[in-house]
């Protein structure tokens, strides 16, 4: 019997049994006519087993009526008490905050499951084309407030919890952030899911269920320390583990020929594990549409446990296979400096791709019924690869189509290219993944065969495009574009090149005179040869170089360099669309990163400027400002149609709006003051400017530039009298947040330096409230939801041309923060939308960077005296005994790895200081500052993820919204 992955087996009879049980509970549940909506919904919260086709028309009508009626606070309170009693994760004696959270979350999930099942029941029936978004990260944040906000049930839930003795906000704080991501990649993916559901697009997300996340960040006297996340320690009330949805995943083994003649192979032996589905509902805003985030966990079948070894005392051997399987989903981005670490990362990526594609193919076949036409697969399925991590989707889909479903190579390759698309998120070479061919060959031998075939097709295309006459040009293009790097050319291509460089033989008929002339010439040559002196004989005449030698010497791999598989190139070749995530980034992708591919296939390349969901990142995290926006724009429509934010422009000078705007900001600043005290122990004044930089710690994001600017500010303050300081400087609280990757030593040095500067400045009685420096530990979505609404100046100061887009800049602008930044990523478009006068711009432009680095390499760069001054101040030891020579050494010299100021901190430092002086001056004029803040919010309408998803849907996925009946 066919059963949808989202259909549960709960029945009406089981709900009736629960209703009978409730009569004997110490809490009243009374499923009576007074409050039928929520209770009945809970009783029947799982939709029928649709595959059975046995549900009566009366039951269908009853469910539709139940879904149309929203629960009131009394029925919600009853549901919460029910879950506290019957689905407990805690002892029954008390109803404290953790228990209240879990019971509340489970009651919300009941509502979601109805919509969830209804959504996919409908999708199954109408067999719509569906998009599948594959990402190694989904940084969801807390789910409770977002879910009840999208369901428009925040008021009833707050009232219900109040009746039960708890405050909704206190209950919501009990939820740990889902540790399924780290930076902007995961936050973007989560915003996209919210928009897909809100806009009623048929779509799913696929990811991995990381048990310990990336890491939990602790800040100690030694800087950043990492410990495992514990987000699943108490369970996750939002997820449903689908034990009936699992797929085999294979590693290692060998490939053998199949008896078929269509290129099919058999992959046998090796290590076998199982990927099990775990589903999380994603509700849309003001819609019943509730889509799915399917996360994979890994295990082995129980028979793999070696009971004999266990009983003999060899416990490690007994559970060795279990641990190998389970650790695939332990950690996000495990350290990859070791061979074992690289192997584990590759296993993670393949697990995501293989399990997801097997699931997608299974769903396609089920929806097709008995008549499966594989040519229609791209008409029903769109697969989006979020960065290069899911690249193995390409060879894996081909493997499934050829080896499992029996399609021919050409058909499978064409289907794959029409199905898959790729989003590029970086221009950093180290982030454009390259895997060792030897590792891939060992771990995924069948996929290497497929990749070789794809590479051979690409090589033939390149040869056809550029010809064989100019071997230097051809070599340049092959080196740039091939998927296989530093690997010999296919034999057929080598033969072609050799033939094209052979000296042609003249076949024309010769006259007798010609023949005689040739004979005379031969005799003359022989005589001349005999007359040559002994000395002449010692001179060696160079042999003619054969075409084989010419070609081999031109294209022979370098034995001193590794053999690699370039995943980004595979993405470009294997997909039908390639998009960047901001206008400037997409131009860099076309003109620099993939220029040769762009010249070959210009139709593939697109721009899709990122966006963020205005529901979570303004509506729910900043209700004070949201109410003001609703008042002045006339409705809540702006939460879906963000274009309405532009209506604020006509009120930008209104004094009443100014007053309300400043009051809302102060409420958020006071909340942040309490938060900082709780998390760091530091006490700050809300009257200071709140200056924030919250990003993954990386040299190109230039937290080092920010903190050196603060150090310079501190030094100048120390040189002044108290009166001079007060007149010269605006009080500032400078806040940092972000994680440095565990093995990124330089980034961890920067974290240590920021905390050392804070420890010195924050305890300096001469400075007082004029300057505070705070590093917020363990930055995540929930922390951002406190920081962003309170921020007045946010820093987006990456080296121009190196940030693909950024999304925090969009969130800050939406919440009325002013931005200081370079012309990088989405900053360019934000500045255009909010107005040049409302954006603090500094620094070199992207098109200047290459020449500036060359200037440095040539020894022509002359540092600003202020930069030399601040470096000397740091080296003086004023911030403690820690040796910062290595960190500061990155800013010194003209060449060398980790030196020569590759990220141009020194070059942009004077421009940055001047711009910060402009910020101080602007902040003193609070009336104009408030106007600028309003105009930032008004100009942020473009940066909704709704707009981005509409563009993906229309221009890449070719899917349409599907409204539920």
Note the main attributes of this structure.
six-stranded parallel β-sheet, 965 residues, nine-stranded mixed β-sheet, disordered N terminus, 49% helix, 41 helices, alpha/beta
What kind of sheet is the major sheet?
9 strands, mixed
Beginning-to-end CA distance, first to last residue: 25 Å
Average pLDDT across residues? 90
What's the oligomerization state? single chain
Amount of helix: 40-55%
Number of distinct beta strands? 22
Q: Could you give the order of strands across the largest sheet? A: 5-8-9-2-1-10-11-15-16
What class do helices, strands and sheet pairing give? alpha/beta
Work out the radius of gyration.
32 Å
Estimate the global geometry from the Cα principal axes: globular
Model regions low in confidence, pLDDT < 50 over at least 5 residues: 1-56, 507-513
Share of β-strand residues: 5-15%
Number of helices: 41
Would you mind describing this structure in some detail?
With 965 residues, the chain is an alpha/beta fold. It is 49% helix and 12% strand. The strands form 5 sheets. A 9-stranded mixed β-sheet has the order 5-8-9-2-1-10-11-15-16, sandwiched between helices. The longest helix has 30 residues. The protein is globular, with a radius of gyration of 32 Å. The N terminus is likely disordered.
């Amino acid at each position: 019997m066919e059963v949808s992955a989202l259909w549960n087996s709960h029945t009406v009879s089981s709900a009736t049994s629960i209703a009978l049980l409730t009569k004997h509970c110490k809490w009243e549940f009374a499923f009576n006519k007074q409050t039928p909506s929520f209770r009945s919904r809970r009783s029947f919260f799982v939709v029928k087993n649709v595959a059975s086709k046995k549900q009566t028309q009366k039951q269908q009508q009853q469910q539709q009526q139940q879904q149309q009626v929203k629960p009131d606070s009394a029925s919600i309170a009853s549901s919460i008490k029910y879950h506290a009693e019957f689905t407990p994760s805690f002892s029954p004696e008390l109803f404290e905050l953790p228990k209240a959270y879990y019971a509340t979350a489970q009651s919300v999930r009941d509502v979601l499951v109805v919509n969830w099942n209804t959504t996919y029941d409908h999708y199954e029936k109408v067999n719509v084309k569906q998009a599948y978004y594959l990402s190694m990260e989904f940084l969801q944040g807390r789910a409770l407030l977002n879910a009840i906000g999208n369901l428009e049930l925040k008021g009833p839930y707050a009232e219900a919890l109040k009746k039960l003795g708890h405050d909704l906000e206190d209950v919501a704080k009990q939820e740990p952030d889902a540790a399924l991501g780290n930076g902007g990649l995961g936050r973007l993916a989560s915003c996209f899911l919210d928009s897909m559901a809100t806009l009623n697009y048929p779509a799913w997300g696929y990811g991995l269920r990381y048990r310990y996340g990336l890491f939990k960040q602790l800040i100690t006297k030694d800087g950043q320390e990492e410990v495992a996340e514990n987000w699943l320690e108490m369970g996750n009330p939002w997820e449903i583990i689908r034990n009936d949805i699992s797929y085999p995943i294979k590693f290692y083994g060998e490939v053998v020929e199949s008896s078929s003649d269509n290129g099919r192979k058999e992959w046998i032996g090796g290590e076998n594990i199982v990927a099990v589905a775990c589903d999380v509902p994603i509700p849309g805003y003001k819609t019943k549409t509730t889509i799915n985030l399917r996360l994979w966990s890994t295990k082995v079948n129980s028979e793999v446990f070696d009971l004999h070894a266990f009983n003999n005392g060899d416990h490690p051997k007994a559970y060795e296979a279990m641990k190998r399987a389970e650790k695939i989903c332990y950690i996000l981005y495990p350290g990859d400096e070791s061979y074992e670490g690289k192997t584990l990362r590759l296993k993670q990526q393949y697990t995501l791709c293989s399990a997801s594609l097997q699931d997608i193919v299974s769903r396609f076949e089920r929806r097709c019924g008995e008549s499966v036409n594989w040519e229609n697969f791209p008409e029903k399925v769109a697969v989006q690869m979020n960065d290069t991590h899911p690249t193995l989707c390409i060879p894996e889909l081909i493997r499934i189509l050829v080896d499992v479903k029996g399609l021919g190579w050409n058909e499978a390759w064409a289907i794959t290219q029409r199905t898959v698309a790729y989003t590029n998120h970086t221009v950093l070479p180290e982030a454009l993944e390259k895997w060792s061919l030897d590792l891939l060959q060992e771990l995924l031998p069948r996929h290497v065969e497929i990749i070789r075939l794809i590479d051979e097709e690409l090589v033939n295309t390149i040869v056809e495009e550029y010809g064989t006459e100019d071997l230097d040009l051809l070599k340049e293009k092959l080196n740039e574009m091939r998927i296989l790097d530093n690997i010999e050319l296919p034999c057929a291509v080598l033969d072609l090149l050799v033939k094209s460089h052979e000296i042609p033989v003249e076949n024309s008929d010769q006259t007798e005179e010609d023949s005689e002339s040739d004979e005379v010439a031969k005799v003359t040559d022989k005589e001349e040869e005999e007359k040559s002196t002994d000395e002449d004989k010692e001179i060696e005449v160079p042999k003619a170089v054969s075409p084989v030698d010419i070609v081999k010497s031109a294209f022979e791999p370098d034995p001193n360099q590794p053999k690699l598989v370039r995943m980004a190139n595979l993405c470009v070749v294997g997909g039908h669309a390639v998009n960047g995530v901001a206008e400037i980034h997409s131009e860099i992708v076309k003109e620099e990163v993939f220029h040769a591919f762009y010249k070959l296939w210009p139709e593939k390349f697109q721009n899709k400027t990122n966006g963020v969901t205005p529901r979570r990142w303004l509506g729910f995290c900043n209700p004070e400002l949201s109410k003001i926006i609703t008042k002045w724009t006339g409705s809540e429509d702006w939460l879906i149609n963000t274009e309405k934010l532009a209506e604020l422009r006509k009120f930008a000078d209104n004094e009443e709006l100014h007053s309300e705007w400043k009051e809302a900001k102060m409420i958020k600043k006071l909340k942040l003051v309490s938060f900082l005290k709780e998390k760091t122990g530091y006490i700050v004044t809300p009257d200071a400017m709140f200056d924030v930089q919250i990003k993954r710690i990386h040299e190109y994001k230039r937290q080092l530039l920010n903190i050196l600017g603060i150090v310079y500010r501190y030094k100048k303050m120390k040189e002044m009298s108290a009166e001079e300081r007060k007149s010269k400087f605006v009080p500032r609280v400078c806040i940092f947040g972000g994680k440095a990757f565990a093995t990124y030593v330089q980034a961890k040095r920067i974290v240590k330096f920021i905390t050392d500067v804070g420890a010195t400045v924050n305890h300096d009685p001469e400075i007082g409230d004029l300057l505070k420096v705070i590093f917020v530990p363990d930055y995540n979505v929930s922390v951002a939801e406190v920081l962003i609404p309170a921020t007045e100046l946010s820093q987006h100061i990456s080296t121009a041309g190196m940030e693909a887009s950024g999304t925090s800049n969009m969130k800050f602008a939406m919440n009325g923060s002013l931005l200081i930044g370079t012309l990088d990523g989405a900053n360019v478009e934000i500045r255009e939308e909010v107005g040049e006068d409302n954006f603090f711009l500094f620094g070199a432009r992207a098109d200047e960077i290459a020449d500036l680095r060359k200037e440095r390499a040539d020894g022509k760069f002359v540092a600003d005296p202020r930069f030399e001054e601040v470096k000397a101040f740091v080296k003086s030891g004023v911030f403690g005994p820690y040796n910062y020579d290595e960190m500061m050494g990155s800013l010194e010299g003209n060449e060398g790895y980790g030196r020569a100021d590759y990220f141009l901190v020194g070059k942009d430092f004077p421009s940055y200081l001047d711009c910060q002086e402009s910020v101080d001056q602007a902040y003193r004029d609070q009336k104009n500052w408030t106007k600028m803040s309003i105009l930032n919010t008004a100009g942020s309408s473009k940066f909704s993820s709704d707009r981005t998803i509409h563009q993906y849907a229309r221009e890449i996925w070719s899917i349409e919204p599907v409204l539920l009946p």
